[in-house]
């Protein structure tokens, strides 16, 4: 029971971090139809900006300043780069964001070097939140979960309960009408892209010290973010939330399970020996194949439900 509850809590906290990271990508795609290949790079920028800001004014100010700074960078990218290639279609947009990811990585190398930085969990949250049986659950993971849930609530209220949200959604479906009502649609899209990047930056602030802040962190999570977005359904915020939790929990449990088909067969009275065909595959443990499980999930979703779990449009 202890293993189950602790693994579940760790899986949910990891899943909520994935949601924080994928929510901005999902919003940008749902509102603008832009698939931002550099999204994980904005996550990395958030972590580095938070590290640099926290050295000067502390973590709590960095929690506010770093996402805003990343959002400003995203808005500048949309205004002076994406907007210029948007008229040429999706392929130039993909290539632009793909190249932008490399530019951001090289920028990080130039400013902060190629090794990791000492971005620490704040002292106020560096203690156990509670003890379950004999295992302690860190307060910072609880804080991470709280921030992710508050972010979900804030996004929902903004899009569904405010005039700004109505203008954003109307700009997607009826841009000419929104323009006629006096709203600047290109500026709306710039703010949407900047806001999506700011959400990635917030995930970087929260996740950078929970894991490791180093130049390879964008590549480490970049692929899993797109898995979450596709599995949940491109453009579906609720789908991204569900997919994030599923992938987080499944991967966390899988990493801790040291079982293989060999041990399963032995428990059923069967014997798999080195002479058995494909023995190399049968002896692989669940923990060893855990890294590929999200991608296997992705392939199955694309085969049997291309729209994703809760998607309404084809990716």
What can be said about this structure in brief?
With 315 residues, the protein is an all-alpha fold. The protein has helices at 2-32, 39-57, 59-85, 90-112, 139-161, 163-173, 175-180, 185-210, 217-232, 237-255, 261-267, 279-282, 286-289, 293-304; strands at residues 128-132, 135-138.
Structure explained in plain terms:
- With 315 residues, the protein is mostly helical.
- The chain is 72% helix and 3% strand.
- It contains 14 helices and 2 strands, in the order H-H-H-H-E-E-H-H-H-H-H-H-H-H-H-H.
- Strands 1-2 form a two-stranded antiparallel ribbon.
- The chain has a single domain, classed as Orthogonal Bundle (ABC transporter involved in vitamin B12 uptake, BtuC).
- It has helices spanning 2-32, 39-57, 59-85, 90-112, 139-161, 163-173, 175-180, 185-210, 217-232, 237-255, 261-267, 279-282, 286-289, 293-304, and strands at residues 128-132, 135-138.
Main features:
globular; ABC transporter involved in vitamin B12 uptake, BtuC; mainly alpha; two-stranded antiparallel ribbon; 315 residues
């Amino acid at each position: 029971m202890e293993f189950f509850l602790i693994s579940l809590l760790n899986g949910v906290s990891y899943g909520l971090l994935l949601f924080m990271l994928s929510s901005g990508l999902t919003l940008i795609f749902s509102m603008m139809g832009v698939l931002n290949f550099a999204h994980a790079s904005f996550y990395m920028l958030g972590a580095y900006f938070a590290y640099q800001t926290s050295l000067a004014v502390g973590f709590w100010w960095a929690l506010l300043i770093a996402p805003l700074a990343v959002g400003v960078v995203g808005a500048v990218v949309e205004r002076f780069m994406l907007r210029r290639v948007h008229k040429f279609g999706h392929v130039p947009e993909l290539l632009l964001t793909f190249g932008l990811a490399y530019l951001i990585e090289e920028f990080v190398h130039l400013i902060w070097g190629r090794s990791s930085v000492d971005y620490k969990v704040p002292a106020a949250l560096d203690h156990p939140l509670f003890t379950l049986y004999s295992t302690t659950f860190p307060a910072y993971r609880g804080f991470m979960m709280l921030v992710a849930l508050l972010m979900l609530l804030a996004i929902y209220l903004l899009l569904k309960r405010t005039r700004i949200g109505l203008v954003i959604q109307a700009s997607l479906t009826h841009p000419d009408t929104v323009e006629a009502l006096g709203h600047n649609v290109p500026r709306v899209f710039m703010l949407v892209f900047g806001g999506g990047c700011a959400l990635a930056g917030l995930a970087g602030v929260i996740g950078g010290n929970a894991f490791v802040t180093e130049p390879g962190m964008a590549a480490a999570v970049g692929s899993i973010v797109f898995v979450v977005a596709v599995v949940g359904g491109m453009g579906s915020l609720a789908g991204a939330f569900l997919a994030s939790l599923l992938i987080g929990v499944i991967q966390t449990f899988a990493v801790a399970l040291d079982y293989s088909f060999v041990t399963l067969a032995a428990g059923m009275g069967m014997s798999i020996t080195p002479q058995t065909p494909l023995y190399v595959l049968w002896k692989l443990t669940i923990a060893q194949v855990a890294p590929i499980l999200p991608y296997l999930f992705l392939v199955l979703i694309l085969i049997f439900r291309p729209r994703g779990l809760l998607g309404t449009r084809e990716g």
